[in-house]
Design brief:
The complex is a heterodimer of chains A (259) and B (419). With 259 residues, chain A is an alpha/beta fold. Chain A is built from nine helices and eight strands. Chain A has a single domain, classed as Alpha/Beta hydrolase fold, catalytic domain (Rossmann fold, 3-Layer(aba) Sandwich), CATH 3.40.50.1820. In chain A, 34% of the residues lie in helices and 19% in strands. In chain A, helix 1 packs parallel to helix 9 and helix 2 crosses helix 3. Chain B is an alpha/beta fold and 419 residues long. Chain B has a single domain, classed as TIM Barrel (Alpha-Beta Barrel), CATH 3.20.20. In chain B, helix 8 links the parallel strand 8 and strand 9. Chain B is globular, with a radius of gyration of 21 Å. Classes of the chains: A alpha/beta (259), B alpha/beta (419). At the A-B interface, helix 6 of A face helix 10 of B.
Chain lengths: 259, 419
C-alpha cells in the first residue's frame, strides 16, 4: 500500500487531516469508531478506480476540535464545513459507523449535496427491541472484540505507528473514543428517524452479519425510512467495522452501488 | 483541628456471596437485593447515628451523594441534611456534596443548599464534587465528554445565584436562564464555605487554590495510599505561593476504636471485610468512560508518581483481606490512645486540618457504630482537637448565627398539656 497524500483543512479553526489517494471520479469517506489511524485495504480498493478523499472528523486521528461541539447541530455544521473544505459538492459519500451517522445527517439536512450515499452500519436510530450495545460500558480490553469480527486485525489497525510514544498514542485513541461518545452517548440515538425521509438519493446500506454493536436488523429500519432508492448488502463474517473486516466484499458492493 | 463524622449509608444486607454471584455494587446492582421495609429501619438508624455524633461533640456531620449504589443510600444528601438541620443544634452540616452537572438547572443546588443554610442557622458546608463516573455517566446518563465543562459552568451559576444582588440572566454554554433569582438566599455571606472533593488531578488543586476552596481527598484506602496525593497537593500549593494552612485540606479515614487493640480487632473485622469485599465490588466496565479524565490528567498519570498512587487507590475491585486492610491502613484500629496517636501522625504527616472519620462502615450495627462514636468522642477527640490551632486559623468553616439568635424546634403542645 502506498501512502496517501496528506493535507489539512480548518474546521472551527481546528486542524483536520485529509488523506487522499487515486484518481478518477471523487468518492468521499467518513470513518467510523477509532477513525483512520492508518490507510485501509478497503480504501485502496476504491482508489483503484476513484480519487478517494478521507477527511478526519473532529477528535478522530489527525483532527482536533471535538470539544467545541456540544450538540448534533454543531456536529452537522462541522461535517458540512469539513466536506466543503475538501470540495465535496453533489458527489458520492461513504460513511461508516459514527461517520455513517454524520453522512446520513448531512444527506438529510442538505439533500442536494449528496448524489449517492453508502452507509456502513451507521448509528442514529434506536430499536427498543434491539438497542445498540453500550460501547463505553465494556470491560477493559474488550472493545476490539466487540466492534470488529477480526480483533487482531483491528488491534494492528489501531496500534501505535512508528515514531509516536505509546502513551501519547493511547491518549489519541482515547480521544477518538471520546469524540464518538460526545456525539452518541448514551444510546447512539440522534433522532435521525425524524429526518430519514429527507434522504432522497440512492443509498446503499452495508452491514456486517456479525455486527455486535448494531444488529443487522437496523439495515431494514434505515431502508424503510429513506426516501431514495435503497439496497441492503449484508457482509458475512464482518462485524461492526464491516469495511475493515471484509474490505473486498465491502469495496465490491460500494463500487457497484445503485446510482 | 476539625473532626468530622461521615456517613456513607451502606446497605447492610448484601449477601455473603455478593462478589461471587452479583455483577456490581453500583450502576446495575441487583434490584431484588433491596428491601424497602429494611431501608426504613436503616435510614432511621443511620440518622440516629449522625444526630448522636453531632450531639457527642464532633465538629461536623457529613453526608454525600451516590446513585444506584449499594454502599451509598443517599441519592439526595440534601434530604438527609435538611432533616439533620432540624435535629441537631451546633454541629456543622457538611454536604459533600452535590454533583453539580446532574442538576437541571443547577440553580436547584443553590436553592436547596440555601434552604439548608437557613434552616440550620448557617451551619452548612457546601461540597461540590464532579461525581464519580458510575454516578454521573452511567447511573445519570451524563456525557463524560461534557461533564467537567458542565460542572464548572454549574459552579459559576450557583455562586452567582448566591452572591449577585439582582435578578440576572445567565447565558451559559449548557444553561440558559432568563431569570436567576433564588429564594431563599444562603444565610452565610458571601455564601457557605465551598469544599471540593476530588481525585489527584493537578487542575483541581489549581482551581481550589485560585478560588480559595478546601480540597478534600476522599479515598477508601487510608493514609498510606493518600499520602502521595496529599504531598502532591502541598507541593502544588507551595508552587502557587499558598501557605501551608492545614485547613485548606480535608481527608477521609476509616477508624475503629475499642478498649484495646485486641477488642477492636474482634469488633471491626467483619464490617471492614464487608465494606472492602462486598461494597467495593464495582464492575470495571463503569470506571473509565472516555473523556471523564482530561487529557492533561491522562498525561500526568503516565508521568507522575502522585497520579499513579491515586490511580491505584481509586481502582475499585475490592476484596482486600483483613490483614491487608490493617497493614495498609485502610482502617485504623486500636485503643483510644493508640488511635489518637496514629491520627495525630496522619494529620500532621498529610498536613490535613479537616479529618473526616468513617466510624460506621460496612454492615456495622447501630449499637457498634454508637459505641465507636462515643468512645472516639470521649477519649480520642479531646487528644486531637488542639492540633494546628496554635498556628492556623480555619477560614473555611461555617459562620452560623450567634447561638442566642438561633431557634430550636418548638413542638406544639397538645391541648391537654397546654391547658
Amino acid at each position: 500500500m502506498s501512502a496517501p497524500a496528506e493535507r489539512t483543512v480548518l474546521v472551527n479553526g481546528e486542524r483536520c487531516r485529509v488523506w487522499e489517494k487515486g484518481s478518477g471520479a471523487p468518492i468521499f469517506y467518513l470513518a467510523g469508531l477509532s477513525g483512520l489511524p492508518r490507510w485501509t485495504p478497503f480504501l485502496d480498493r476504491l482508489a483503484e478506480r476513484h480519487r478517494v478523499v478521507a477527511p478526519s472528523l473532529p477528535g478522530f486521528p489527525g483532527a482536533t476540535g471535538h470539544d467545541r461541539l456540544d450538540n448534533l447541530l454543531d456536529w452537522v455544521a462541522a461535517t458540512l464545513d469539513l466536506l466543503e473544505g475538501v470540495g465535496f459538492e453533489g458527489g458520492d459519500l461513504i460513511g461508516a459507523s459514527v461517520g455513517g451517522t454524520l453522512a446520513a445527517e448531512v444527506a438529510a439536512m442538505a439533500p442536494r449535496l449528496v448524489r449517492r450515499l453508502v452507509l456502513i452500519a451507521p448509528f442514529g436510530l434506536y430499536d427498543k427491541g434491539s438497542p445498540p450495545i453500550d460501547l463505553w460500558g465494556q470491560k477493559p480490553g474488550a472493545l476490539p472484540g466487540v466492534i470488529s469480527a477480526k480483533p487482531d486485525a483491528f488491534a494492528a489497525f489501531t496500534a501505535p505507528p512508528e515514531g509516536i510514544a505509546p502513551a501519547e498514542w493511547s491518549i489519541l485513541m482515547n480521544r477518538a473514543n471520546e469524540a464518538a461518545a460526545r456525539l452518541l452517548w448514551p444510546l447512539g440515538d440522534t433522532r435521525l428517524e425524524r429526518r430519514l425521509h429527507r434522504i432522497r438519493c440512492p443509498t446503499l446500506i452495508l452491514w456486517g452479519a456479525a455486527d455486535q454493536v448494531l444488529a443487522p436488523s437496523y439495515a431494514q429500519r434505515f431502508a424503510a425510512g429513506i426516501a431514495g432508492k435503497t439496497r441492503i448488502v449484508v457482509l458475512p463474517g464482518a462485524g461492526h467495522l464491516a469495511d475493515l473486516d471484509a474490505p473486498d466484499a465491502a469495496a465490491d458492493a460500494a463500487l457497484n452501488a445503485p446510482g | 483541628m476539625k473532626l468530622m463524622w461521615f456517613h456513607l449509608m451502606p446497605y447492610t444486607r448484601l449477601p455473603a456471596d455478593f462478589r461471587q454471584h452479583h455483577n456490581s455494587v453500583w450502576v446495575d446492582i441487583d434490584r431484588s437485593l433491596f428491601d424497602p421495609a429494611f431501608a426504613h429501619r436503616l435510614y432511621n438508624e443511620f440518622m440516629d447515628e449522625l444526630e448522636y455524633a453531632g450531639a457527642a461533640g464532633f465538629d461536623a456531620i457529613c453526608v454525600n451523594e451516590h446513585h444506584a449504589n449499594g454502599y451509598g443510600l443517599m441519592p439526595s444528601p440534601n434530604l438527609i441534611a435538611s432533616a439533620l438541620a432540624r435535629r441537631t443544634s451546633d454541629t456543622a452540616i457538611c454536604v459533600l456534596g452535590n454533583s453539580l452537572a446532574l442538576y437541571n438547572p443547577p440553580t436547584r443546588v443553590a436553592e436547596e443548599m440555601a434552604m439548608i443554610d437557613c434552616i440550620s442557622g448557617g451551619r452548612l458546608i457546601a461540597g461540590f464534587p464532579v461525581g464519580t463516573p458510575m454516578d454521573t455517566c452511567y447511573a445519570y446518563g451524563q456525557n463524560p465528554s461534557t461533564l467537567r465543562a458542565r460542572y464548572l459552568e454549574a459552579h459559576d451559576l450557583i455562586v452567582e445565584a448566591w452572591t449577585r444582588p439582582e435578578t440576572f440572566a445567565f447565558n451559559g454554554r449548557y444553561n440558559q436562564l432568563r431569570y436567576v433569582n433564588i429564594w431563599p438566599h444562603p444565610l452565610q455571606k458571601p455564601h457557605p464555605p465551598i469544599w471540593i472533593p476530588g481525585g489527584g488531578s493537578v487542575e483541581t488543586w489549581q482551581w481550589c487554590a485560585a478560588r480559595d476552596y478546601v480540597y478534600c481527598y476522599l479515598s477508601y484506602f487510608g493514609y498510606q495510599a493518600g499520602r502521595e496525593t496529599m504531598m502532591g497537593f502541598w507541593r502544588e500549593m507551595e508552587r502557587l505561593g499558598k501557605d501551608r494552612n492545614p485547613y485548606r485540606a480535608g481527608f477521609l479515614q476509616f477508624v475503629g476504636v475499642a478498649e484495646s487493640r485486641e477488642e477492636a480487632m474482634r469488633l471491626y473485622k467483619e464490617p471492614a471485610e464487608y465494606f472492602y469485599g462486598r461494597c467495593l465490588h464495582v464492575d470495571s466496565r463503569y470506571v473509565n468512560p472516555p473523556g471523564y479524565n482530561s487529557e492533561a490528567t491522562q498525561r500526568a498519570r503516565v508521568t507522575s508518581q502522585v497520579a499513579l498512587a491515586s490511580q491505584r487507590a481509586q481502582t475499585f475491585g475490592g476484596g482486600a483481606s483483613w490483614e491487608e486492610i490493617l497493614a495498609k491502613g485502610f482502617v485504623i484500629i486500636g485503643s483510644p490512645d493508640e488511635v489518637a496517636a496514629q491520627l495525630k501522625q496522619v494529620a500532621t504527616d498529610l498536613n490535613v486540618g479537616h479529618l473526616m472519620l468513617l466510624l460506621q462502615f460496612g454492615n456495622m450495627s447501630r449499637d457498634l457504630a454508637g459505641y465507636n462514636t462515643r468512645i472516639f468522642a470521649e477519649r480520642v477527640l479531646p487528644q486531637l482537637r488542639a492540633l494546628f490551632d496554635d498556628r492556623w486559623e480555619d477560614r473555611w468553616w461555617p459562620t452560623p448565627l450567634p447561638k442566642a439568635a438561633r431557634v430550636a424546634p418548638q413542638p406544639f403542645l397538645d391541648r391537654a398539656a397546654a391547658e
